[in-house]
Amino acid sequence: MADLDIVHPRINDYLEQTLAEENPLLREMGDYGRSLEFPIIGAQAGRLLYFLARSINAKHVLELGSGFGYSAFWFALAVGEGGKVIMTEGKQENQERARSYFARAGMLDRVEFNVGDALEITKKYSGPFDVIFCDIDKRSYPKVVEVAHAKLRVGGILIYDNMLWHGRVLQENDAETKAVRETTRLLMNDDSFFTTIVPQRDGQTISLRLK
After folding, report:
1. Closest Cα partner for 31 from 68, 56, 84, 80?
2. pTM (predicted TM-score)
């Protein structure tokens, strides 16, 4: 099955132009990611992350899968001075690039860098976190629900990216697609969370911790 456009291409083009990165460094990061076809979340989803974090006055964010810092940059803007974004990334070179962006932005004090397996790294942080954002290997997605139970505060928000998985959730049955569907099932059947799905870009689940 070929990948599906979640939003009509002309509508998506309009949104990309309307919701483009305003911050010069974010625009530079976005251009860099797009030039390499690096899977950044993009400005549409970035604005959603910022909106959600600011809406609950988030000060402590745990990010599972940070790449070179694009999504973390949105969170760092949202948490403001005194806030902290815990970043996890598997590749040292991506962390170094991220560090350079945050240094140039004067926001090194708002982020903490970690290189290695995201799920292992989270074990050293007790939380509670206001926001947990997940964009790691899809086969590991279901395990992050347990992380949220342990480390996300009541009233906090759990966000997953790629939850429509380019339309593959409709019928493909590879391990990654199964894991995405299983994560959605777990969230929708967990009365500790109220979950909805936003069909923008590649789809995000947003889960509010209720208890």
Report:
1. 68
2. 0.96
